[in-house]
Amino acid sequence: MVPPMDLRFFEIYRNPDYLARLFEGTLMSIGITLAGAVLGFVLALGLAGMRYGRVPVMGLLAACYVEFIRNTPLIVQLFFVAFGLPMLLGYQWPFWAHAILALMLNFSAYFSEILRAGLASVEDGQGEAAQALGLPGVRSFFLVVLPQALARMYASLSSQFIFLFLTTGIVSEIGVRDLTEAGVFIDSRTFRSFEVFLTLTLIYILVSLVFKTALALAYPRLFPWRRAAR
Q1: What's the mean pLDDT in 177-197?
Q2: What would the pLDDT profile of 16-26 be if each residue is shown by its tens digit?
Q3: What are the residue ranges spanned by the domains of the chain?
Q4: Phi/psi at 92 (5° precision)
Q5: How far apart are CA 12 and CA 157, in angstroms?
Q6: Which CATH superfamily is domain 15-225 in?
Q7: pLDDT of residue 131
Q8: Which of 27, 150, 160, 24 has its CA nearest to residue 103?
Q9: Residue ranges of the alpha helices (H) in 55-174?
C-alpha cells in the first residue's frame, strides 16, 4: 500500500525569507516581461513595416532576421546575448538586462509575424482611400492601416504576451533572480520539490490570469471604434 503524501507547505509560507524571495522573483518576472514585450513590440513593428513596404531589400533583411530567430532555440540566444556578445563587444550589463535583450530579440520575430499577418488582412483600399483624402503614406499607415491590423490580431498578440511571461523562467539559467530561480533556491534548502513547484505553478497561473484580464479590459479602450462597429 502506497503511504499518503506528506505535504509541508508550511515550510514555505512560515519562512519570511522564502516569501520575500518569491515576491521579489514575481516582480522580476513581471518587470522582464513588460520590458521585453514593449521593446520587442517596437522592434516587431519596424520589422513588419519593412516587410509590408515596397523595398525588396528591406523586406528580405527582415525576413532573414525573423527566420533566423524563429529557427534557433531561445536558450541558445539567451546564452549568446549574456556571454557571447559581452566578449565580442567588450561590455557588461546586469544579467537581467541581458535577459530583457534576449527576450526582446526573440519575441520581436514572433510579434512581427503576427503584425505582418494583420497588415496583410487589411484591404489595400483602406490605405489608398486615406491617401486620397490627403494623408501621406506614412501617416495613413500609422493612422488607418496599423490600427485595423492591431485590432484584428489583438487576441494573438495577447496570447503571445502571456507566453512571453511564461517563458521568462528560462532566464534563471543565467542567474536572474526571477520567480523560477526563487523556487529552485527554496527547493534546494527545503527539499520539498512538489510543494515548491506547485506554489510556482499557482503563482504563474494567477499572474497570467491578471495579465489576461487586464488585456481584455484594455481592448475596448484601445479600439473603441471596433465596439461601435458591432
Answers
A1: 93
A2: 999 999 999 99
A3: 15-225
A4: -145, 125
A5: 35
A6: MetI-like (1.10.3720.10)
A7: 67
A8: 160
A9: 56-70, 74-79, 85-89, 95-121, 124-132, 137-140, 146-152, 154-167
